[in-house]
Amino acid sequence: MNARHIQGSIVALITPFHPDGSVNFEKLGELIDFHLANQTDAILILGTTGESSTMTHEEDDAVCAYTVERVAGRVPVIAGSGSNCTETMVEKSLSFERLGVDGLLLITPYYNKTNEEGMYLHFKTVADAVHIPCILYNVPGRTGCSISENVVRRLSVHPNIVGIKEASGSLSYATKIARYLSDDFLMYSGNDDIVLPMMALGSSGVISVAANILPREIHDMVWNYLRGDRAAALETQLRYLDVINGLFLEVNPVPVKEALNLMGMEVGGYRLPLTTMSEGPRAALREAMEKAGVLA
Predict the structure, then answer these.
(1) Where along the chain is pyruvate bound (predicted)?
(2) Which residues span the domain enclosing 57?
(3) Which H helix or E strand runs over 174?
(4) Count of CB atoms within 10 A of residue 19's CB?
(5) Are 92 and 67 a contacting pair, CB within 8 Å?
(6) Is 224 part of a structural domain of the chain?
(7) Can you give the CATH number for the domain in which 75 is found?
């Protein structure tokens, strides 16, 4: 499956857990089928929303293998193989490639950070080592560092780097890097609340948390915009804005898992340090979902 020119809604899929904290593969299969039935354009596993930071390498491999088999080539499967250790990111990327994923999401080196050249080499080293497309992941609110405009410019021409998930929330930054977009280097909004402004800057869609609970709606919103029906796209963006904001009342993916459980999806809980959503934010999320018709 070609992961080089994806347009539309890419769900940043949660990882469901059993009560004992182990991965619930049966539920993962149900979620994958749910997205395939609702026209999600690609599936991202093991990203921030997938809680990969608390999963073992063996669990990561098992989730990759299961997802690739379940999807069976119907949509692209992208796996988050990022690490703050470049060597580890190479190892994970090569492992996921062998397991059959169609593309990789590569995060900036958090905690130890780096200088400009180190940032460039962090991504280039992985892109040189694998044979599947790579998407950069800029999320400074999580990592404490950002990919500079100059590094984006340099990486945008690498033949194996096909895009960037831009999740800084800064339209100013997005505008600066938009000048490097091309048919071979795409941008995806990493923030559900500004999908349409990002698309106005040339984004090809969204890597979405909200798509976990609104797969058809996010798909339709993006494709309405791409097909020129801006009014319909805007109506969807605004109709679900309070729900989207509710999904970030506490750290992701706590609220989105709570939302799925409120919908009866039974995706389980979290791994520490993540824990149950506080009652006030939980009530606010439920109210937003009820008002938007997501909950009856």
Answers:
(1) 49, 207
(2) 8-230
(3) helix 171-178
(4) 8
(5) no
(6) yes
(7) 3.20.20.70
Q: b/e map of 177-206 (b: 16 or more CB within 10 Å)?
A: bbebbeeebbbbbbbbbbbbebbebbbbbb
Six-digit token pair at 48? Answer: 């921030």
Give pTM, 2 decimals. 0.96
Residue 293 lies in a domain: no
Binding-site residue numbers for pyruvate are: 49, 207
Q: For the chain, how many residues are written?
A: 296
The number of folded domains in the chain is: 1
The gap from C-alpha 136 to its chain's centroid, in whole angstroms, comes to 11
Q: What is the pLDDT along the chain (296 residues), one digit of tens a residue?
A: 788 999 999 999 999 999 999 999 999 999 999 999 999 999 999 999 999 999 999 999 999 999 999 999 999 999 999 999 999 999 999 999 999 999 999 999 999 989 999 999 999 999 999 999 999 999 999 899 899 999 999 999 999 999 999 999 999 999 999 999 999 999 999 999 999 999 999 999 999 999 999 999 999 999 999 999 999 999 999 999 999 999 999 999 999 999 999 999 999 999 999 999 999 999 999 999 999 999 97
SS (H, E, C) 69-90: HHHCCCCCEEEECCCCCHHHHH
In a domain, 271, yes or no: no
Q: For residue 242, is it within any domain?
A: no
Active site residue 270: no
Distance CA 33, CA 40 (A): 10
**Of 185, 142, 192, 150, which is closest to residue 10 (Cα–Cα)?**
192
Q: Which residues are annotated as a binding site?
A: 49, 207
137 is catalytic: yes
